[in-house]
Records
---
Amino acid sequence: MNLYWSGVISHFADYLPVTPKTPELTLQEGNTPLIQSQHIINHLKLKSLFFKFEGMNPTGSFKDRGMVLAVAKAVEDGKKVIMCASTGNTSASAAAYARRAGIECIVLIPQGKIALGKLSQALMHGARVIAIQGNFDDALAIVRSITSHYPVALVNSINPYRIEGQKTAAFEIVDWMKCVPDYLALPVGNAGNITAYWKGFKELFGRKETNVLPKMIGFQAQGACPLVTGIPVEKPHTVATAIRIGNPASWKGAINARDESGGSIEAVTDEEILTAQRMLAEEEGLFVEPASAASLAGVLKKNKQGFFQGKESVVCILTGHGLKDPDIAIEQCRDRIESLEPSEEIIVERLGLSGAKHD
Ligand code: AN7
C-alpha cells in the first residue's frame, strides 16, 4: 500500500486533462474520509449512511480538488493572475493555490455575506479582495467579463478544469465503498459540484448504464432555490452564505445530473439546515459549515416524507468545514457557556460531583 498521498493531479492523472507540461501543483488535496454514520442512521429508514467529509481538504472545502487543476492549467497556459467571484470557499482555495503556484489572485466577494473563516484565508494568502455591494451573481458577471477581455484566468467552476478536478471525489467514493451508493446527497449553489460528481460517476461506469449509478439528490436553501422553482432568484437569502446564489452558472449541468440519474433537486429551510448542522456536530462529531449540512437536512426531510424503504445506501457530501463560519456556530450555542467564579468548590458543585470524591 502506498501510504503517501500525492494529491489530485498526480493520483488521478490518467483521468484528468494533464500533459507533461502541467505543473505538479499540490497541497495534497483529496483522499478525504468517508465516515460511516453511527448515530444519525438510527433516526433514518436506511441501510447505510456515509459522510464524505470534504472539509478535510487543505483549505477546508471541496473546492481544492478542482482549484488545484484550474490553477495548474492557468500556469501551464502562461497566466500570472487568476480571478474568481466567490461566496467564500472558492476565494480561499484560489488564494491558497495561487500562492503555492507563485501567481497572483483577485477575488470578488459579496460585501458582508462571506463567512469570517473564508475571508481570513483569502486575506492571509495575500489575494486582492474586492468586496462589492451586490451578490455572488453580480460578482460572477463582472469576473466573466474581465477575464474574457484581460490576461487573467477565470477559476470559477465555469472553468472546465474545476469540474474535472472535482469529479475525482466520485472516484474516491467508489474506490472506498467498492460499489456505488443508491443516493448521493449534496448541497447545490452554483451547481458545479453536482455536475462534477455526475460526470465522475458516468466516466467510471460508461454512459449506457446510468441506472446502476447513484441518484443525485441536490438541496438548495429555500431562499435561494432557482433550480427548484425554475426561475433565477434576484435577491437570494439564506443563513448558508456559501449557497446564497440566485442564478447558478452550471444550471444545465445540474438539471442534466438530476434527470439522467433519476434524482431530484429540492429546497430545505434555514431552520432545517441549522438543525442538521447541530445533529452532525452533536451526534457524529462532525463540524461542518451550514451549507454543507443541507445534504443531511435534505435526507432527513425525505426520510420524514416516507421516501426511503430501509434498504437504501446514501452518501452525504459534507462540502466545507465548520470552522469556516464560526459566527453562525456560536450564535446557535452561545448560551451553553457557563460562567463561574475561579473556584474548584463552585465548579465541582455545579458539575454535580460534590458527593463523588474518591481518595
Ligand atoms: C461549502 O465559494 O460557490 O453547487 O464561491 O462553499 O458547486 O456551487 C461555494 C459553493 C456547497 C455549492 N457547499 O457548490 C463559492 C461557492 C459549500 C460551498 C457549495 C459551495 P456548487
---
Amino acid sequence: MKAAKHTVVSLDYTLKNNAGQVMDSSEGQEPLVYLHGVGFLIPGLEQEIEGMEKGQAKSVTVQPEHAYGLRRDDLLYVVPKSGFQGEEEMVVGMQVELDTENGPALAYIEKIDGDNVTLDLNHPLAGEVLTFDIKISDVREASADEIDHGHVHGPHGHHHH
Ligand code: ZN
C-alpha cells in the first residue's frame, strides 16, 4: 500500500539542519506513526512521502518555505529583564514561556544588554534547510474513527478525548 491521504504511516527518520547536525531522530525508539494527508508533518516532507511504500527509504531536502518558514525580524522583541521571574538566571539561548494575546508561546533569549532582553519568537528551525533521512516501516488504511478524529489510535498512537 502506498502512503496517501488517510493512510497511517510508520516512519523512521533522522532530521539534520543546515550544518548537518542531527536535530531529531527516531533511532533507538519506536517509529513515528501518523495520519498522512492532514498536515501532521511539515508540508515539504509530507509531499515527499506521498506514494512511498513499506520498506522504501530516501533522503529528502526541504527548503525553509516548506518547513518552518524563514526567520522574521519582526519576531524579535526587546523587553525589560525585570518583567521576568528569576531574572538573575537568564542566559542567552535559554527558552522562556510567554503569555501572549494568542496564548502561551515559547521564545529564546537572543541577547541580554543591561536591563534589556531580546526575545526571539521564531521557531528554532526557521530559516534552516532541513534534511530528513526517512524509511517507511509500515503503511495501513486508517479507520473511520481515526479519519474522523484526525489522529492515529491504538499502539503508538496518541489518544486523548
Ligand atoms: Zn481519537
